[in-house]
Please model this.
Amino acid sequence: MAKTITLPGLIDPHVHLRDPGQTHKEDFFTGTSASLAGGYTTVMDMPNNAEPIISLERLEAKIAGAKSKAVSDIGFHFGTLGDNFEEFPKVIDKVMGLKIYMNVTTGNFKIDADRLIEIYKAWPGSKPILLHAEDDVSDIVFKTLAAVPKQTHICHVSSEAELTFVMKAKEKGLPITCGVTPHHLFLTNKDADRLGAYGHMKPYLKTAKDVQFLWDHLDAIDVIESDHAPHTRAEKDSAEPPFGVPGIETCLPLMLTAEQEGKLNRQQLIDRLHANPARIFNVTVDDTTVVTVDMSEYELVNEKLLTKAGWTPFAGQRVVGKVTNVTLHGAEAFKDGQVIVQPGSGTLLP
Ligand code: NCD
Ligand code: ZN
Ligand code: ZN
Model:
């Protein structure tokens, strides 16, 4: 018998499940099936849909879709371009956080940086604000946070410069956390040359030196977030490939393999994939939500993935850690590598 381990249900605060609007890439059933296959029992979906989630009406339509299709627990982040403040109080009890895009990425949903402070002032209550904020906008983020110190999560930190900014903001006592993706931990700009469009995402892959800096400062990294961003092969093979790579099914095996290589220990892994995202996004995962992982070695292959995208930039890589079973709130949801529950059996958060 191969060795198995048990983990608490993992939490990913950063996925793009493309539903509604781009369900040829992913939908709530395939996306949350992939989540269970990756050991995630809770995911939080981003608002950069084809029609961005900037009103109560669009949010409610999205929630209704998830209610009938999701097989893992799921919550939603709200979106803004700085012109929908009247919607904030209407949605605050139905979302996990507010997502703001400060750089160009998939969805063309970038704010005018001058509006950041107004948006911060308008966001009610204490739920986190999540920023897509690359190196070039860190000054304005710092000034905004110093003026309006609301809980802020910097998404997909990718470089020495970006993580240094987060570390400095933490030292100053600002309420900031950050996430790093598996692709920024396990791939470099050299891989981008090899992968072509399949290694094309925002932020771009960085140098080996940047990657080493992230590993050397793991203590400053609160969350490992997949930024699961499925696009079809046809889209990736097109003249203008969209930014983003799928990642929710490969993150845990990559991290468990890194653990075996001595790059981090089990507690550091669980903190970043479970305990810290639970605390930051105020999620509770009960003791009856657990994941069983077979620790035999195997090869990541595109054909075995449950994401509709059907590919991973890590194809061909040998890893340990395959999720075999997931129990969600006491009931088996994923068994021997298969989803065994009906669409709609996941719980909606908050
Ligand atoms: C994401 C997507 O495809 O929605 N793409 C990406 O390259 N990361 C958007 C984002 O997270 O910036
Ligand atoms: Zn982003
Ligand atoms: Zn993203």
